[in-house]
Amino acid sequence: MSASSAIIVSSPPTGRIRDFDLVVRDGRLLVVGTPDRSHLACTWDPATDLWTEHRLGNPWLEETDGDYTELYTLGAAVVDGRIVIGGGGDHQGFAMWDLESGKVRLSAQDGGVGSVVRADFGARSLLVVGFNGTWAFELWDPSAAERDDDDDSDRPSPYDLLVEVEELCSKSYASSAVAAGMLGERPVVVADSWEGGVLVWDIDEQRSLAEFDELDEEPHDFAMAAVDGRTHVVAAGRRYLVLGDPETGEWAEPLIVPGDEISCLDAGTVNGRAIAVTGAGDGAIHVWDLAGRQPLGEPFLGHGGEVYGVRMTELDDRPVVISAAHDGSVRVWELPS
């Protein structure tokens, strides 16, 4: 049986998409990405194959810091009908912009950035920022912005709403370095603990809700999915995928992923079935039936290099995976039923 083929293949007009997020605005799905070019971000409408580039303002407060952006990783949210992005890289700390105007909403912070992902906690969306190689995650509110010099309002600044989680650490440069969402009624993030093992962390109460023991090989990418009616942690190591039960803190038997090392992960529910999607260094994308503990269909082949990111979503009422890779292409794959 032949491998599945992409239903849409496209590339940005400049550069290649190093990281991306998905937003829905005015009922249309948009891919918001970083083409790894200074002062530049872009959107892609997969329904029309329309790319739009956006110039970004200088995020540095001091002229001596330079006039550039470095977005290796990016998250996006819709705030009052406008797209807000946040991101950074090895040489630029986390910053936020209004995408269409390019106006800086949060100046570049100290240090570098390893990963950024938007997390939806019910009606509240936050940008979760990881720092590769060190502990701690930060959660920034995209609805807040730094005040202008002549702004004497009492609206909160981004620093007032900042949430820091020092107990977790990032070990991946993908957006799946941390999983985030609701566990029952609790807003949680899931990632490696700097003391070992994996923690499910309540961001409101600032405490651990579940702790998973260390595996023989520590995982580095995470997602959450409802399996058999209960929310589970989905974790990926170099060549394995494993389910964890937050109620017991126990891991199931790992699934071995063929091919090259896993580079990114996503999970969700499609037609009532819990599914995980893994991208790998050799360009292959595998789809997994989590309840059945088996591959779902043939792998998606077509990328000519490392897969930077995979996201499950719907396009024209069809469940799809959107992926970006080192070869410069962005691809849309229809998920098997």
TrEMBL record:
Annotated source species: Nonomuraea purpurea
InterPro entries associated with the record: Kelch-typ_b-propeller, Quinoprotein_ADH-like_sf, WD40/YVTN_repeat-like_dom_sf, WD40_PAC1, WD40_repeat_CS, WD40_rpt, WDR55/POC1
Protein name in the entry: WD40 repeat domain-containing protein
Sorted UniProt keywords: Repeat, WD repeat
Keyword Repeat among UniProt keywords: yes
PANTHER family listed in its UniProt record: POC1 CENTRIOLAR PROTEIN HOMOLOG, WD REPEAT-CONTAINING PROTEIN 55
WD repeat segments: 300-337
Pfam families reported in the protein's UniProt record: WD40
